[in-house]
Write a structure and sequence with these properties.
This protein has 93 residues and is α+β, with helices and mostly antiparallel strands. It has one domain (20-92). It is built from three helices and seven strands, in the order H-H-E-E-E-E-E-E-H-E. The strands form two sheets. It has a four-stranded mixed beta sheet with strand order 6-5-4-7, with no helix packed on it. It has a three-stranded antiparallel beta sheet with strand order 1-2-3, with no helix packed on it. Strand 5 (53-57) and strand 6 (63-67) form a beta hairpin. The longest helix has 11 residues, at 76-86. The protein is globular, with a radius of gyration of 13 Å.
Length: 93
């Protein structure tokens, strides 16, 4: 948690690109600047939730940040239920 709080305040987080996420039954799509990639839920290292973000860790040091205020479809509560089902042993709050 300390590392997450420290990273959140750093320039490497606050000045990063903006991504759009689309969630499908077996994978998620990460889209930015006419480029996209897919990530299977089973390949996520860990899912961590704070009051304002969901962190989808790709490995122990790299994560995708989902701002809870940025949902265009659905709600953070609905996403929490969804991701807990997709990653039951990887979800932490």
């Amino acid at each position: 948690m300390a590392e997450v709080k420290e990273d959140y305040q750093s320039d490497k987080v606050t000045k990063q690109k903006v991504f759009t996420f689309t969630f499908y039954p077996k994978r998620l799509k990460v889209y930015s600047n006419l480029k996209y990639s897919f990530v299977k839920y089973r390949d996520l290292y860990k899912v961590f939730e704070t009051d304002t973000f969901f962190y989808l860790y790709l490995d122990s040091r790299h994560s995708l940040l989902l701002d809870k205020s940025g949902f265009k479809k659905g709600t953070p509560s609905e996403f929490r239920d969804f991701i807990k089902k997709k990653c039951p042993f990887k979800y932490k709050k």
